[in-house]
Amino acid sequence: MTSRNAAQDLPIAIIGGGFSGTLLAINLLRYGVKVALIERNSTQLAKGVAFGTRRPEHLLNVRAANMSAFPDDPGHFLRWMAFSDAEEANRFVPRLTYGVYLRELLVDALGKANAAGQIIDGEAVSVGFDDDRARVRLADGGEVECRSVVLALGNFPPVPHPVFAGLPDVLYRPDPWAPGAAEGLEGIDHVLVVGSGLTAADVVLSLESGGFAGQVTVLSRRGLKPHSHAEVGPVVIPIPDPDRRGSKLVRDVRQRAGQVDWRAAVDALRPHTQNIWRRHSAQAQASFLRHLRPYWDIHRHRLAPQVARRLEALEASGRLRYAAGRLIDAQVQGSRAAVSYRPRGQQRAEEILVDRIYNCAGPECDLSRVDAPIVRDLFDQGRIRGDVHALGLDVDHLGRVLGADGTVQERLLAVGPVTRGEAWEIVAVPDIRRQVWGLARLLADAHWVGGEGL
């Protein structure tokens, strides 16, 4: 066995090459740390699901001015895009363009790293830990020796809805991001989209761009839909970290929204949201998730204005309808599906006949129900556990994973959406880049602080 000092010369293994894993790799390479970035789907390397789309109608939900990959260089993405004025900085560019940006950053970092970085095309299926190192085992039998492992698993596909379990693939698409999900639209008149968030908006736009000329019904429990960004970014006046909690905090935000643009009131919370979440008890957090989360989501996670206008036009034409209700049943009826749901606030069920159903109810967050081999292996070892709200992995404030007994796993860490239970707001680029920035400094022993821009 090699010495403990020799273990420090081993790379950091990052499992997952989407946005979170790629940006962590780039930052570690900038600090001179060796990196092994493991990604099972080479087409999603440096892009992930979010930025791996090939459809130009799928736009970023954040303005170009706030999309730099680096918190110490907020204008980086603008310079890369050659945007120079305020109008261009306000643009919402295609997500596929941002995917190209990320891949270029990774290639550039690898080129400057003098062989300190490697990309491994394979699926991590298990991790073994020794006293001073770890070994990541791959599906093809290969092995990566490393000093620490970071789980950058991104978002998992939605859970197939049990109501649709008996439907054939031609009628039901459980994962809207699966290859070919938006194909085969010929002869289809009515589509049901389950879930009304940003993914649902993407699916509706993809259907329209693909030539679909029929009707779309978007069904969710409350029938809510995301609000739009303003055409020009609101003027956000910084506020101190709010010290109120629960309903008193909600009341303060509502009062401030009445004084300034509501978008500015919500955006002013951005620098403090994670701290606000952490200060609340698990019971208070659960109350937020149960009662307020849907309303927070539609105000916080907004549509690009041009996307909102397209959806409004479809709705005005009668081709797009939003419905609120609870799914009851779905049966094959000829070549179509008969879907029953109970409208919100009513006792009597309604039935609609549809030609295809898309599950856009959001990614699976309860990792106990995820069948990914690496997740199952770490659960079986007792190395990981879900957080109290089943939002992802249980981690501490440094990103170190907690085992089944609550002990800190010093050489097993996590980054990105799987840490949602600890940080809550950790799905957008501005939040993840700051988290990655801090984790890279921790792993590199870089005890200095650069710009922390949001």
Automatic annotation (TrEMBL):
The keyword Cell division does not apply. It comes from the Bacteria. InterPro entries: FAD/NAD-bd_sf, HpyO/CreE_NAD-binding, L-asp_N-monooxygenase_NS-form. The keyword Transferase does not apply. Residues 13-155 form the FAD-dependent urate hydroxylase HpyO/Asp monooxygenase CreE-like FAD/NAD(P)-binding domain. Keywords: Membrane, Transmembrane, Transmembrane helix. Gene3D superfamilies: FAD/NAD(P)-binding domain (3.50.50.60). Pfam families: NAD_binding_9. The chain crosses the membrane at residues 12-33. This is FAD-dependent oxidoreductase.
